[in-house]
Structure formats: C-alpha cells, structure tokens
Specification:
Blueprint lengths: L8 H20 L6 H10 L3 H15 L3 H24 L10 H21 L2 H18 L4 H13 L4 H15 L10 H5 L13 H30 L1
C-alpha cells in the first residue's frame, strides 16, 4: 500500500516527545546555562502539549475501548506524579501542581461524557459536563489547567474544520499568556498529519504494544532521569 504524503500519527508522537524532552531539560537547566539557552528550550517545548491534545482526540475516535484508554491514562497519571513533583519542586508530594497525564485524562473523560450526553440525554447536559471538567482541571491544578482541557475540547469540536480549530486553540494559547503563544508552532506538524497511524503496529502485535507503551513510560522515566541530572548539578 502506498504511503500517504505528510506526517503519520507516530511521527507526530516523536515530535511531541522530543520537544517535551527539550522543554523539561530547560526546566532542569534553568539558571545553570545562559538564560537565552534555557528560555529557548522552554519555547521549543511549547509545541508538545497541543500535539498531544490533537493525538488524544484522534485516539478517542479510533480506540477500540475508551474505558481501557481512560484506565491507562489514570494509571500513568498516578505513576508519574511523584517523579513530576520531584522535578518541579524537589518534593515527593507537591499538591499545588499535577502532571499532564491528569490533564489528558480529564480531557478524554470530557469527550466520553460529552458524546454520551449528546447521544442519550438533552444537549444541555453535554455543556454541563464540559463546564464540570474545566472546573475539575482548575481545582486539582493539573498541568495547563482548565485551558489545557479546553484545548482538547476545541480540537475535538473543530476536528473537521481546521480554520476554526487553529483560530480557537490559538486564542486559548494567547489568553494563557507568557511563552504559551509560541505553541502555535505546533499547528504546522498538525496540519501535515496524513491520518495514518504509522509505525510497525500493523506488522507485529509485539512491536505495536512496545510502541504504545513506550510513549506512556517515556514520560515518568525521562522525568526521573532529568531529576537525577538536576540533583548532580545542584547538590
């Protein structure tokens, strides 16, 4: 079968994790390297989260079992919390800020609720579900907060209307302030998405499972390694 032009979902995942790694390395190296260097790394890292949001929406549409998808995100949210807290606060427990898996979990649960309410009850309940999940993200102080969950919803809402998607998500980025506006750079690889999963998952079940869980485990493992690096640098 001839491969479509553009970027596959697997390629987008690699772009997201590499830019995320650069971002987190910038956090660890803050005030250790010249300011221009670590700030540039943080700016590059802005690309990661919107791509993860976009891929989450694609995963929502293509997953065989949404409940298992939710469980996976929940498990890795819990596994990642201590490493994440250590990286950002030097503490094993830091309730003021939760890792991005919680943001993705809330976002995916929102899509599940929203679709279910639209199909089974009055549409007003779908809006109530949206507001409830935004409030939950705000209350638990997950990474990117309510704005991050709203971005997931907008990627979902305007999935087949690219202009509306880029404008609405871009406005959220602008409203978040600071360097978040640089996240618009993620629109380029997203626009090049060819709708294909990519990788070797179709050729080997074992390879497919490895690829799937590699990206889940990468998050807590790379954070632990970077936290160890920071310990060596500062202690």
């Amino acid at each position: 079968m001839e491969q479509k032009k553009g970027l596959s979902g697997m390629t987008l995942k690699w772009i997201a994790i590499v830019t995320m790694l650069i971002d987190h390395l910038g956090i660890v190296l803050t005030y250790t390297v010249p300011e221009l260097v670590w700030k540039s790394m943080r700016i590059i890292g802005r690309m990661a989260f919107p791509i993860f949001c976009f891929l989450l929406v694609e995963g929502f549409y293509h997953t065989r079992d949404i409940k298992k998808y939710l469980v996976r995100l929940g498990i890795f949210a819990l596994l990642s919390e201590v490493p994440f807290d250590l990286m950002i606060s030097w503490q094993a427990w830091y309730p003021e800020y939760q890792n991005v898996f919680f943001t993705l979990l809330i976002g995916l649960f929102l899509l599940y609720l929203y679709n279910w309410f639209l199909a089974n009850v009055q549409p007003i309940y779908a809006i109530m579900g949206l507001v409830s999940m935004l409030c939950l993200a705000y209350l638990i102080k997950c990474d990117y907060g309510a704005e991050g969950v709203l971005m997931i919803y907008l990627f979902f809402l305007f999935r087949f209307r690219p202009a509306g998607m880029y404008i609405s998500v871009g406005l959220v980025m602008a409203l978040m302030g600071g360097i978040e506006i640089f996240a618009v750079a993620s629109f380029l690889p997203i626009a090049l998405y060819n709708g294909e999963k990519g990788g070797k998952a179709v050729e080997s079940r074992k390879r497919g499972l490895f690829q799937k869980y590699f990206f889940y485990f990468f998050y807590p493992v790379h954070i632990l390694l970077l936290t160890g690096l920071r310990y060596l640098l500062y202690v």
